[in-house]
Amino acid sequence: MRFTIKNGILLPSNTIEDSRPISQIPALPQPPLNQDYHFNGNLQQLLTGKQLLLNDIPFPLNEIQSHYENGYVTYRHGIIYKGKQPACARCGNKDQQWFAYYPCARCGETCLYCRQCIMMGRISGCTPLIGWNGPVPDTIHPEKISQWQGTLSKGQSEASNRVVGAIQENKELLVWAVCGAGKTEVLFAGIEAALAAKKRICIATPRTDVVLELTPRLKAAFPEITVASLYGGSEDRHLYAPLTIATTHQLLRFYHAFDALILDEVDAFPYTVEESLQHAAIQARNPASAMIYLTATPNEKWQRECRSGKRAFTTIPARFHRHPLPVPEFIWCGNWQKRLQKNRMPVNVLRWINERIQANKQALVFFPHISLMETALPILRQFAQTIEAVHAEDPDRKEKVQKMRAKEIPLLLTTTILERGVTFPNIDVAVIGAEDTIFTESALVQIAGRAGRSKDHPKGKITFFHYGKTDEMLKAKRQIIEMNREGLKRGLLDC
Ligand SMILES: [Zn+2]
Ligand SMILES: [Zn+2]
């Protein structure tokens, strides 16, 4: 779309002679707010705290323009130029190779666009990002906001108090909670405090699965609060809600929206690999706001910042059931890949697996790569034909996990796809080839975190079979031992 400036305001027009793509208009005027203007409440609900494309807005352009002229709607550049260097205002992309040109029907020129965030709709040189500048929608909360009936462990309750404090004071806080500590419950008091103070709060997580799992839990805990559940293709897209749960990708549509943002699994794919999502998280926050990071496995830099006092953090070093985390054992298994090429496997690995089958103990067995896992599968089926293997592209992934839960599968081979998010009550865990670079400290701590989850079966054996110990293996083990030591010291463990 092309704009021109007339009487100090932007006018969309493709016909006026001096009209230009919006990125070629350096300063975008913003008309003052006309208090007497009757704004559209639906548009207000849709746009508050957002940055949307025209395509995302189911209202005619002349209505949007009229709100702009009366100061209620803002137009921002989709692509910002610093000199000749373009940057995408939505995802923060500055990398030349992630921009491309195309013949654009909207402005009639060869238009530069951002390829990095194209899955959220195309941002090009003629794209305005549309937001809200008027009053925010009124939210009326019930007297009793939280209906959550559960209780917190001592460790959870200490962390919960810190979360409340950070939200009230608009601070940043890292909650470093071991796998199985029960981190969701730790958020409830903080969410309640935010809502009570009329703050808008969002929980963002990299995985759609987690959004789907958390949504009913939040709705149950806050039954009278509107909860927006956002992921690719979700129906709540246009819903204004004081409490939002979203995939990190969806944050790209928000701008200065949240007074408190909770980022779950900050270490997990794709957040760490996609700078755009970090950019999105920063943009989605109000300038004065709280930021809570949740993780079981902060990266090395963050761990260092915690130790040196540069980062505010709190730990939950013990699980809800008050038993220590099982500590991994390292077993050398020789050049296992070479053996696999000859359709054989190390004897100690075979023994480990056979022992589980004989004892009727379920196990997860991790492999670094799909092809190696698929070579191993027929070899291991000598012990039980019902052994299965699963990976990210497996169309039967959900069914297999379900069968594992129903105890119809004795042993499930897997890639790192099951390193987090899945809970089976009573399993042992093995990693074959723990020396592989795919098994980072964080991945190994998560994998070890699959064992001993339930209070009826708090123990579980974790074995890292390797062809040479790595630093990552040692760091993972050290981290688990440290957490157990701290849990004991703080009186969060029973043994
Ligand atoms: Zn972009
Ligand atoms: Zn264009």
UniProtKB/TrEMBL annotation:
The keyword Hydrolase applies. Residues 164-316 form the Helicase ATP-binding domain. It comes from the Bacteria. One of its GO terms (biological process) is DNA recombination. Residues 349-495 form the Helicase C-terminal domain. Keywords: ATP-binding, DNA-binding, Helicase, Hydrolase, Nucleotide-binding. GO terms for molecular function: 3'-5' DNA helicase activity; ATP binding; DNA binding; hydrolase activity. The keyword Lipid biosynthesis does not apply. InterPro entries: Helicase/UvrB_N, Helicase_ATP-bd, Helicase_C-like, P-loop_NTPase. Signal peptide: none annotated. PANTHER family: COMF OPERON PROTEIN 1 (PTHR30580:SF1), PRIMOSOMAL PROTEIN N (PTHR30580). This is DEAD/DEAH box helicase. It comes from Neobacillus novalis.
